[in-house]
């Protein structure tokens, strides 16, 4: 698991959030959910659950387990900058719960359809192995999947610097917010005409 020192994007985001009272923290094998009462209502934020692949025997799966619900909403959100993947997942879920909903600005779109539309005849770099990879290959010019745990036909994540600058479309999993690789990936995308963050997390 790669963790970067740069956290300016998260720091800037945290500075804009309201605080709230933590109601519940649930960490599952695939999803982490945080319920926070803020602005007079209870909101649930979700994030992918990441595990620490380098955890030593005897270390807890979730540091501070049993104490997380005693933290305020902003204190939980600050965990997005933690070096522990499970806590970073909690932090991103808390951020999603605290972000004020903007119903008028929300648009219901399908990531696969958007990538396919913009990727016709182009090299598409997909950061993260999404369920629709096999279908997408037939709809775009060329598809390259970058993955920290590569599956057959995927490239390792460290190939991003070679692939992304050449791509016409880049789609990035929201999990990169948790493992703190998003900023560097976006820097590689900066001259590109099309980039999409396909985020597997959100607020309810």
CA-based shape: globular
Q: What CATH first level of the largest domain would be assigned?
A: Alpha Beta
**Poorly predicted sequence stretches spanning 5 or more consecutive residues:** 1-6
Briefly note the CATH topology name of the largest domain: Rossmann fold
Overall domain count: 2
Radius of gyration: 18 Å
> What summary fits the major beta sheet?
5 strands, parallel
Report the average pLDDT across residues: 86
- Helix and strand element order: HEEEHHHEHEEHEHHEE
Strand order of the largest sheet: 6-5-4-7-8
Strand content: 15-25%
Number of strands: 9
Number of helices: 8
Helix content: 25-40%
Distance from N terminus to C terminus (CA atoms, Å) equals 28 Å
Under the CATH scheme, the architecture of the largest domain is 3-Layer(aba) Sandwich
SSE class? alpha/beta
Describe the secondary-structure layout:
Elements lengths: L7 H7 L6 E7 L3 E8 L2 E8 L24 H6 L6 H14 L12 H8 L4 E5 L5 H4 L5 E6 L7 E2 L3 H4 L5 E5 L1 H4 L3 H8 L4 E5 L3 E2 L1
Write up what this structure looks like:
By secondary structure, this protein is an alpha/beta fold. It folds into two domains: 8-103, 2-Layer Sandwich (Enolase-like, domain 1), CATH 3.30.390; 107-203, 3-Layer(aba) Sandwich (Rossmann fold), CATH 3.40.50. Helix content is 27%, strand content 24%. The protein has helices at 8-14, 73-78, 85-98, 111-118, 133-136, 160-163, 175-178, 182-189; strands at residues 21-27, 31-38, 41-48, 123-127, 142-147, 155-156, 169-173, 194-198, 202-203. It has a five-stranded parallel β-sheet, sandwiched between helices. A four-stranded antiparallel β-sheet has the order 1-2-3-9. Strand 1 (21-27) and strand 2 (31-38) form a beta hairpin. The longest helix has 14 residues, at 85-98. It is globular. The two termini are 28 Å apart. Residues 1-6 have low confidence and may be disordered.
């Amino acid at each position: 698991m790669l963790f970067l020192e740069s956290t300016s994007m998260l720091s800037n985001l945290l500075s804009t959030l309201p605080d709230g009272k933590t109601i519940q923290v649930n960490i599952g094998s695939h999803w982490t959910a945080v319920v926070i009462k803020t602005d007079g209502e209870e909101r649930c934020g979700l994030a992918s659950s990441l595990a620490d692949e380098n955890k030593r025997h005897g270390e807890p799966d979730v540091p501070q387990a049993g104490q997380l619900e005693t933290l305020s909403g902003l204190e939980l959100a600050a965990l997005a900058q933690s070096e522990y993947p499970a806590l970073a997942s909690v932090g991103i879920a808390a951020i999603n719960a605290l972000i004020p909903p903007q119903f008028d600005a929300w648009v219901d779109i399908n990531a696969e359809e958007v990538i396919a539309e913009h990727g016709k005849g182009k090299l598409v770099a997909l950061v993260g192995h999404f369920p629709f990879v096999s279908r997408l290959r037939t709809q775009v010019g060329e598809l390259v999947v970058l993955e920290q745990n590569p599956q057959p036909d995927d490239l390792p994540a460290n190939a991003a610097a070679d692939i992304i600058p050449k791509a016409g479309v880049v789609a990035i999993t929201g999990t990169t917010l948790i493992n703190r690789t998003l900023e560097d990936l976006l820097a590689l995308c900066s001259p590109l005409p099309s980039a999409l963050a396909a985020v597997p997390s959100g607020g309810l």
